[in-house]
Amino acid sequence: MSTIARVLTAFLFIVCEPGAIGRLGRALADTDGVAEVYTTTGSADFIAVVRVPDLDALATVVTQHIAGMPGIVRTDTHMAIRSYGRSDETAGFDIGVD
Amino acid sequence: MSTIARVLTAFLFIVCEPGAIGRLGRALADTDGVAEVYTTTGSADFIAVVRVPDLDALATVVTQHIAGMPGIVRTDTHMAIRSYGRSDETAGFDIGVD
Amino acid sequence: MSTIARVLTAFLFIVCEPGAIGRLGRALADTDGVAEVYTTTGSADFIAVVRVPDLDALATVVTQHIAGMPGIVRTDTHMAIRSYGRSDETAGFDIGVD
Amino acid sequence: MSTIARVLTAFLFIVCEPGAIGRLGRALADTDGVAEVYTTTGSADFIAVVRVPDLDALATVVTQHIAGMPGIVRTDTHMAIRSYGRSDETAGFDIGVD
Amino acid sequence: MSTIARVLTAFLFIVCEPGAIGRLGRALADTDGVAEVYTTTGSADFIAVVRVPDLDALATVVTQHIAGMPGIVRTDTHMAIRSYGRSDETAGFDIGVD
Amino acid sequence: MSTIARVLTAFLFIVCEPGAIGRLGRALADTDGVAEVYTTTGSADFIAVVRVPDLDALATVVTQHIAGMPGIVRTDTHMAIRSYGRSDETAGFDIGVD
Amino acid sequence: MSTIARVLTAFLFIVCEPGAIGRLGRALADTDGVAEVYTTTGSADFIAVVRVPDLDALATVVTQHIAGMPGIVRTDTHMAIRSYGRSDETAGFDIGVD
Amino acid sequence: MSTIARVLTAFLFIVCEPGAIGRLGRALADTDGVAEVYTTTGSADFIAVVRVPDLDALATVVTQHIAGMPGIVRTDTHMAIRSYGRSDETAGFDIGVD
Amino acid sequence: MSTIARVLTAFLFIVCEPGAIGRLGRALADTDGVAEVYTTTGSADFIAVVRVPDLDALATVVTQHIAGMPGIVRTDTHMAIRSYGRSDETAGFDIGVD
Amino acid sequence: MSTIARVLTAFLFIVCEPGAIGRLGRALADTDGVAEVYTTTGSADFIAVVRVPDLDALATVVTQHIAGMPGIVRTDTHMAIRSYGRSDETAGFDIGVD
Which residue of A has its CA nearest to C15? Predict the structure, then answer.
């Protein structure tokens, strides 16, 4: 309920040019709003977990900061709509956008 | 800035069983939060434009109301992150989530 | 029934070069016939809602105005065929082409 | 220019259950608005050429008549937006929707 | 039965560079064997209907005339194998290759 | 030039239910017009080489004989348009349809 | 370096039957090893973040606990191989498997 | 050169019904010709490494033994054509089929 | 049974740059091991039937001779594992690798 | 149980530029951690089997050594999570990460 606790969570699947993987890992980690970044198995080169206060901040991270990095080929954004907690906690709750 | 004007926009691509198209069009239109619904050309059977006040309402529309309708096969949600206006209007603005 | 009210609706899924997203948002919004344009989650960079009086105008928007913008990689057009209204309104109605 | 000559053209890619191909060919050919229907090479079982006077008639053909036939799995509709003529004829012309 | 009436029908799905759509429409329409050409909704930029007397002519249209046009990215050919007529006409008939 | 020598060649990619592979191999080989049939590596379960005198015979093989076999899931037909010979033989020649 | 801090991170993309979304959210959240679970935009119904001490625990979560839940259609696992930290922290570090 | 040493290597990507993963792992490992079997990250449920003396044995493993197991949805076979050794060993060598 | 009769059969799906189709047809036909080559309908530009005595010869054809031709974009190899004969001939037989 | 015996297994699907296949086979085989490398049938050009002691070594092989080789287009990594043994051996066992 507090504005401090509000956060949007998005998972970014990032494909880059093969030779750019090493350089981009650190550049992604240094991007404001990127909470975690990993090289992963599978068809994406990186998965980045973005936690930002609102959609405008998400747009800034995805379309201005990350899309403009040299070597980025595609970014596919999956945004969390609802978070589910354990039964012994509170019920499925709004993840902070109102 | 006013809470009255705040709205999230999402585009839902909905695939259904072939025989259910006729019945589902009206059911989708009657769903709270669905502003427009069309049968369209291409690989989706319907495109629904959802306008809701927050992510929790979006989750309710997508995962509770629409996903539970008999005949729905898949729903792929594309959420608007940032809206762009004409140059003679205000600059790219936040679409209502903060 | 009035020719003034007639409108075709099309949803354009637009993929662009990563570095062109910032610049293209405004250019798309400034295009005649483009009613709304958003960056979105998912595999498209933009979804543009086009509302035009006839198919010829749609062809002009898609193949002449948008396809020619530098940085556009692909445009996939989904055209609305039939609109569905709420049960308490009129039945599924023709969206304005006759 | 005459309303009599106006026609929308759409190409329907139709996938059906393997055992239904024989029966569906004739049923598709008997559908109002279907001008031509072929079994074809490639990933679709049928390509049907639909010529109708307006979008409402197209919606009726696709979502009511064809989608409801037993054995239909999917129909993907590609609608003609603009027709191109030979240089020795008239220039690219509107295909009849206004 | 007459050799005059014999014709092969093929549907070509053509993808081109975005900036080449305007120029290619007329070039395709001017190609011998191309009976109709449209820009369409969906993932192809053009659908061309080719009607030729034999497979050799189809090969010439597809691999020599169209594939060589600057700006063509891919051509996917769907050839009609069998045409279906209405019940009040003759039964499913051979489309002219023997 | 002789009608005896004329032949259409088509490659059928056939996907079937996993448990039907053993039974279908022989059934496909026994089908008139099927010259060769193999289980293969890759995403198809069988590749069948069909050699028939005309398109009507191809339609009969694909849509009546094979599509109706229990356990067939999909058949994707690739038809040969032009055959290429070695430089020390005759030039690219028509494969028998006129 | 401490065994206490060691953790493997995996992102699970989970597709389920449309009617099962509501029920599965809580069931996934209650699964040992699932740190976070969200319904998301895009082609997956859920993204679950799994944090486990070793690969054997990951196998147990994915193939025994989640795959066996009624209504699950597919689970696609993307495992984090290397985590990247900010420049003002330590360099790209091993994520805890040795 | 010895017939004893000859071996074909194939990688099988196996997709199964979600509830069958636990049971199938052991069944696959017990199959003659299957040298290794793993559940893996990514879109396949299992990767099995098959090493057999000849193509006929591979066909028996894939189309008779594995395809017939209850719960198998698809098997995609990638066969090794040529093996590469380290520079300090012998040059790229034939993997045992002659 | 005779080593002379032994042959591996592989089907190569070859995609090339659009402008290279004409030139590549003859080049492929002139390649040792290529028994037949056709331009075809569908998503591949060529299907080549390769018949070679062993896997090493197949590797030479695919990775050295064909992959190196200018204009080749991708080659997807489907290798025959088992051939099926007609019921009035011998049973499913090994296709010549032991 | 011994640290010496611990090993992670990953299967790398590697796509490269057509002209680079010959050169890359040996380069991949010479890469530390690559236990086996093959050209294969199907959509990948190479399958490499990587066996390394931990995830950090896997990241080094995939993102630093292989991704940086000229001619590599994409690498898709499938990591083994659990290995299955025969019934007459020990039960499904952890593959060495703790």
Answer: A74
